[in-house]
Amino acid sequence: MNDRGVMIVPMDPSEKKEVKKLMQSVFPFLMQLFFSFTPNILVAKKDGKIVGGVILKVFTLSKNRKCGLVAWIFSDVSARGLGVGQRLVESALGFFQEQGCQDVFASVEGFNTSSSKLFSTRGFSPISPWQQIRRYGFDYLPMLFHTFHMFDVGHFLWVKPGASQKVSSGGQWIATWLLNAVALYIAIGRGSGFTSLSSNIPLFVLISLGIFFGLRTVVMLAAAFALKIPVVFRMWMSGIFLTTAIALVFGGYFPIPGSIYPDLEGWSYKEQKSKIGKLSLVGILSVLLAVWLGILGKQSSMVGHWDPNFWNIFLSVGKMMCIVGIIIPVFPLYSYDGKRVLDWNKGIWAICAGATLATVFM
């Protein structure tokens, strides 16, 4: 298959080193640690040089339902504009069709609109957790395992053929709140022993998460309205598996708040970066404000006498949201608000990060 001088061919085993070197030039170091080869790899060549690659996986669910996964896709910066990504995806779909695959998957980070466009124009669409469960039933967990879609925070599962309808933002927000509450309760119980927990702990967990998640979402929706950009809330379901695992194994809590995304057809992150940065900024400021008010409330003679367990949970949640959501804008936390503000305005991000550090150690 040839387009603009680009040839798509199966990778020769002797080309592994060259393909891996190209992958390393595209993805950040921490992401590279999860890279692996499969028996099915296609490469894009121009003038004999490898300028792109796609790592493919074929797996089978129950009743011999064959599925395909576009596990990795990448191209050389020097080859941008040559349609390398498009040719790789089309060749991958041809391969999966030859294998008899009924479903083809790809996991795409929510703000990676270049990849989203690549898949959406070829019959893929994001599929929500509820749609996944309805479509795959008892194969839901095996499907997540084979697609590696269990711990990729902020990524969404795209599938061909796509979903026929959208899912309620409100339902996704409520699920995010409740599932985070379960993980936080497990973390608290794992750390201190469930039998010694106060009967008020579940209520304190729900209230604390409700305040932080709710305030952040409301101010971001208000900002989106002011900026005249339609948005939708989307939960990070794969992150729920991660935060639950951390709670069970280590007794720690890792907030997975989901986020607000433009509800536009074929939108571009580059074009919407300024608006998204502002949405994320108000989200950051709302969390910081809630933590500051919590610190003042704990010290206040009027409310400071409340159950100390409430203040401990409330401030722990808020400070952890500040740390993962603001201070560390790199993989695997680049779907959080901090990365969005950093991409928009580095100076404002630095001020927010400084304020966060000061708040965390108060």
Give me a quick take on this structure.
This protein is an alpha+beta fold and 362 residues long. 53% of the residues lie in helices and 17% in strands.
Give the C-alpha Rg: 22 Å
Largest beta-sheet details: 8 strands, mixed
Low-confidence parts, pLDDT < 50 over ≥5 residues? none
SS-based structural class? Answer: alpha+beta
Q: Please provide the count of β strands.
A: 10
Helix content: 40-55%
Specify the number of helices: 13
Task: Report, as a whole number of angstroms, the end-to-end distance.
Answer: 61 Å
Write the layout of secondary structure elements.
Elements: E1 2-3, E2 6-10, H1 16-26, H2 29-32, E3 40-46, E4 49-61, E5 65-75, H3 84-98, E6 103-109, H4 113-120, E7 125-126, H5 129-136, H6 140-146, E8 155-160, H7 169-192, H8 201-226, E9 231-234, H9 237-250, E10 259-262, H10 269-299, H11 308-327, H12 337-344, H13 346-360
Parallel strand pairs: 5-6
Antiparallel strand pairs: 1-2, 2-3, 3-4, 4-5, 6-8, 7-8, 9-10
Helix pairs in contact: 7-8, 7-9, 8-10, 8-11, 10-11, 10-12, 10-13, 11-13, 12-13
